[in-house]
Every structure is written in structure tokens, then in C-alpha cells.
Design brief:
With about 375 residues, the protein is of the alpha+beta class. It contains 14 helices and 12 strands. Strand 2 (about 30) and strand 3 form a beta hairpin. The longest helix has 18 residues, at about 310-325.
């Protein structure tokens, strides 16, 4: 049974600046020896995690912070009716390896994801009379709780983003019990073609000061392009990360991922550009290994009288046929395209995104 679900998205963004670097310039990358515009995977993951669709269909997400004192205050607010203050403080000290009495940062300043249900689970263990003798020795607690990790993982059902993206911790109990290998691999999205960025010279007028000129002058880089988004979901890893979820539960999350990868867009400068463009092609295939189709665009797609979008879809389908033949990728594959481009060889054509999501949830069967 195929363990990986691969998502291939082609999405054309109108003029925009969705993801910037520390110099306030568009993120970019060289691929095939040519400059492309890039949207980082971190930016895409945050857009997905913070989306209304995620909250409605998958549920809550993790709390990400470097501030232990802010986390402490929130946990006391949420769990004070269930546990004494000293139990909560001991739990947070053990998990972070830091003293909650001091205003310390977590993991040396790295933003760490936390789950309230997960902290609640640890409080339950620490609050039991039989475990009170362990005190605050992290190694003893790790040894005592290592056989209960499946129960701990089950708490991630309220923060699927950690099950998908993983978590690395370097201190406290979380360094031994809280590490999670991400089930989803998400690539940086890049344009299928070369992009020459433009510069927007913008001004702002002061309404309270009479002047024939502008009160502010500035510049902003922007561009447009067809982006290839790729993600791969390890179903078995997702099941493990969620404490033994069924394959069907993992497939339901995969179907929702297809929707979000096709529709969710980072919010950078969107009030200025409004590049709210849904995907023009969504293809999903099941396989025994993760397979990216980025090399379909290693040679930049040339512009045609039809623009970049249709040629990009055609290049993708051509390359998919070569790869699927060469590597014997015979797992189910289906594609939804807004244009009238015929699907690739042995790829089922879907009438709309909902039909494709249903197909994913049904394990690649109609």
C-alpha cells in the first residue's frame, strides 16, 4: 500500500510581493542557472496553519513562543482549576529545562511550538502521588514516561501542525519525549520561469499638511509569476505522530492539505497587491517514495502568446509521464485543472477540487 501522498500545485500569482527577505526584497533562488522568485516553505506553512480553513476542518494549532513567562501565564490561566500552581510550574520547568521563576527564553531564544493538551498530559503525570518521588530530575522523568509516549502523541490531535511539520527541542523533558519527526515535507515554491522584478515607486500624502508634494516616498520590489508548490505527506509517520491514528484519519488530513495548498496564500503586502489567486492545477499521486516534479522546470518555461501558465502545465504533464514511466510509479494519480489541458498519462481527470479531495480521502479510488 502506497505510503506517500505527493501534492503538485501550479498557481499563477498576479503582481505581488508575498515573501520578503531581511532587505525587504522578494525572496528568490537560482534554479537551472536562472533566477526565480521564491516563497519559503515557512511562509507557506504559517499561511496554512493560521488559515480559517485549518481552524474549521483540522482544529487548533500549536502556540509558538520564545517567552517562558508568557507561556507560564497562559498555562496558569487555562489549567489553574485542574492543577495546583506548583504542579504547573514544576511541569513547565521540567519541559523547558528552565526556571519559570525567571524571565527566561525557551531553547536559547528559538521559537518553540507548545500544545495546551500536551502540557495538560504532563501535568497529569506529575500530579500523581506515585510519581511525586521523582522530584525535578529530568532523566528520571524521561525514563518513567518513555513507555507512555503514544499517549503523549495522541494529544497532538489538537495541534496537527506539529504532527505535520515536526518539532525539535534541545532542553528539558521535551528534548527526549517531545521530539517529533515531521510527516510533511514542503518545498520552497519557485516560479517555473525566469522573473525580472519590478520596482514600485510609491508615495503617501499628508492630509493635515498643505503641500504640493508627498510626505513620504518609498520603493517596493514586486513581480508576477507561475509558482510550483510541492509537498509530500508520509502517512505512516502522521499516524504515528498522532498516537496511532488510522490511515483513514491520515487521508482526511491529506485531503484538507490539498485544499489548503491550492488556496492558502502568504499575507505579505496583500493589502497593497491583493494577489488572492487560487491554484490553476492540482495533482496528487500516491507512491512508495516522495517524488518532486520541480525538474520539469529546471529549464525555465519560455513565455508564449498564452503566457506562462498553460506551457507550465504542459511541461509538468510531459515530465510526469517520463518520471512515472522511468520509475514505475503505478500508484493512483489524479489531477484537477482549470484550463482545458488534457491530463498526463494514466492520471485521472477530476472535475473540481472537491472531487479530488474525495478521491484522496477514499485512498485514491473514485
Amino acid at each position: 500500500m502506497n505510503n506517500f501522498v505527493n501534492f503538485h500545485i501550479l498557481i499563477s500569482h498576479s503582481p505581488s510581493c508575498l515573501n520578503r527577505d531581511d532587505m525587504n526584497m522578494q525572496k528568490d533562488a537560482v534554479f537551472g542557472g536562472k533566477r526565480r522568485v521564491r516563497i519559503s516553505s515557512q511562509s507557506l506553512k504559517r499561511a496554512i496553519r493560521k488559515s480559517d480553513y485549518y481552524q474549521r476542518h483540522i482544529g487548533g494549532s500549536s502556540i509558538r513562543t520564545i517567552h517562558l513567562e508568557l507561556l507560564r501565564d497562559l498555562v496558569h490561566q487555562k489549567l489553574s482549576e485542574k492543577y495546583p500552581a506548583e504542579v504547573i510550574n514544576t511541569t513547565l520547568s521540567l519541559l523547558s529545562g528552565k526556571s519559570v521563576a525567571q524571565e527566561e527564553t525557551i531553547d536559547g531564544g528559538a521559537v518553540s511550538p507548545w500544545v495546551m493538551d500536551e502540557i495538560d498530559w504532563f501535568c497529569q503525570q506529575i500530579n500523581t502521588p506515585e510519581n511525586s518521588a521523582l522530584g525535578t530530575d529530568e532523566k528520571k522523568w524521561a525514563k518513567a514516561l518513555k513507555d507512555q509516549v503514544t499517549g503523549l502523541r495522541a494529544t497532538l490531535s489538537s495541534a496537527v501542525d506539529i504532527a505535520l511539520s515536526g518539532r525539535m527541542a534541545t532542553s528539558g523533558l521535551m528534548s527526549e519525549l517531545g521530539k517529533v519527526d515531521g510527516a510533511m515535507s514542503l518545498a520552497h515554491a519557485i516560479t517555473t520561469h525566469v522573473v525580472d522584478s519590478d520596482i514600485d515607486w510609491f508615495t503617501a500624502v499628508d492630509d493635515l499638511h498643505e503641500s504640493t508634494g508627498a510626505a513620504h516616498l518609498g520603493t517596493q520590489e514586486f513581480s508576477s509569476g507561475v509558482f510550483y508548490r510541492y509537498a509530500s505527506l508520509n502517512l505512516a509517520q502522521l499516524q504515528e505522530n498522532l498516537g496511532g491514528a488510522t490511515r483513514q484519519q491520515a487521508l482526511e488530513i491529506a485531503a484538507h492539505l490539498a485544499h489548503m495548498l491550492a488556496t492558502e496564500i502568504p499575507g505579505g503586502k496583500q493589502h497593497s497587491f491583493a494577489a488572492f489567486n487560487p491554484a490553476d492545477m492540482v495533482m496528487v499521486n500516491f507512491s512508495d517514495l516522495p517524488v518532486s516534479m520541480a525538474n520539469a522546470f529546471e529549464k525555465p518555461v519560455p513565455a508564449s502568446k498564452e503566457g506562462f501558465l498553460r506551457p507550465s502545465i504542459e511541461e509538468f504533464n510531459t515530465y510526469w509521464t517520463k518520471v512515472s514511466r522511468g520509475y514505475g510509479l503505478d500508484g493512483p494519480a489524479a489531477q484537477f485543472v482549470l484550463d482545458d489541458v488534457a491530463p498526463a498519462e494514466k492520471v485521472m481527470q477530476m472535475p473540481d477540487l472537491n472531487a479530488l479531495k474525495h478521491w484522496i480521502g477514499n485512498n485514491g479510488e473514485v
